[in-house]
Amino acid sequence: MALRFPYCSNSCYIFRPIGNHGDHPSSLKHKQAAIRCSSARSARRPQNVPGEFYVDHTCIDCDVCRWMAPNSFTRVESQSAVYNQPSTSTQRVAALQALLSCPTASIHTETPPADILQAHSTFPIPIHEDSLPGVYHCGYHSKKSFAAASYFIKRPGGNILVDSPRYSERLAQNLQELGGVDYFFLTHKDDVADHDRWQKRFNCPRILHEQEVTADTAGVEIKLKGKGPWDFLGPDIDLLFFPGHTEASVCLHLKPLKVLFSGDSIANIPQGYLHVDPNFNWYSVDIQMESIKTLLPLDFLWILPGHGRRAKYNNVEEKNKAINDLLDSVYVRVAPLPSIEQNHLQKASLHGMHPLHSSTK
């Protein structure tokens, strides 16, 4: 008799015997088949151009490498691929940063890169040193958070980690050199990843709305109550109640730099417009759109999202036009709006990663 255990995400299995009687007669055959399956998934996709960098078949189409290193990565047949090998030092650094940030370790080089430690040292990455001094992209995206981006804010009132990257001691050391983490703000329940390891590393209080707390985050030190806004982090920051994507998502408005950290509530997409996806809404699209309306009077010019791409506007009028275009879009009006109950059932049945279906190069 044998017990069957999952071996890889393609549903191959190995058979393990009960007791100490050696391998089940079919064990070696199934194990070899599983190894072949695993190797096939980690093999170079034929859609990659020849050269050092490549993407394998485990890519989950999260779009991260394509916006981190757009000169090297594109989308081909619903997965990423290298369309242009890095030809300058800047392009190479960006490609290595994307490799290190890939949540599923789907990006590889033909031989170990000699400059990988230098690439590690570039994190966190300044987003725009002129417009957003002290605001960084952490990289090291986590599969646990469906490849969501996390950010670091260096400020006199206390440094803030926004959502959780994959834990990396190298990143932790780099953050320590920038002054460490004083507060750990979690926009909602989806993007908490390795929150416990980061909290222990920096002994920083985590902030999460009480309605977003799960068994995994029961130990969160600061649980927001009610509908805010909350300004206890200082006069430069408002935490904004933003239900819709989840029951009690919260956005962070860094007022002096005019930037909104939006979590999964709103994002830009490669086609150049703001977007919400009803297919990945866990509470109510109607309520999410009502929350988005509250952004119109706010003074910000940047949107830094968890999923999707950053948005930068020249003025508030341009920002408001983009928001109104989203509110008026045919896509939102004609798309079926799943009920709260349907969304909870959908979430319960979702396993693994969710791609951004609209992603392109």
UniProtKB/TrEMBL annotation:
Boundaries of each Metallo-beta-lactamase domain copy?
A: 147-307
Q: CDD domains given for it?
A: YmaE-like_MBL-fold
Q: Which domain of life is it from?
A: Eukaryota
- Residues passing through the membrane, by range: none
Annotated Pfam families: Fer4_13, Lactamase_B
> Which InterPro entries would you find in this protein's record?
Metallo-B-lactamas, RibonucZ/Hydroxyglut_hydro
Quote the SMART domains the UniProt record gives: Lactamase_B
Secretion signal span? none
* PANTHER family from the UniProt entry: METALLO-BETA-LACTAMASE FAMILY PROTEIN, METALLO-BETA-LACTAMASE-RELATED
Please identify the protein, giving its name as recorded: Metallo-beta-lactamase domain-containing protein
| Species of the source | Adiantum capillus-veneris (Maidenhair fern)
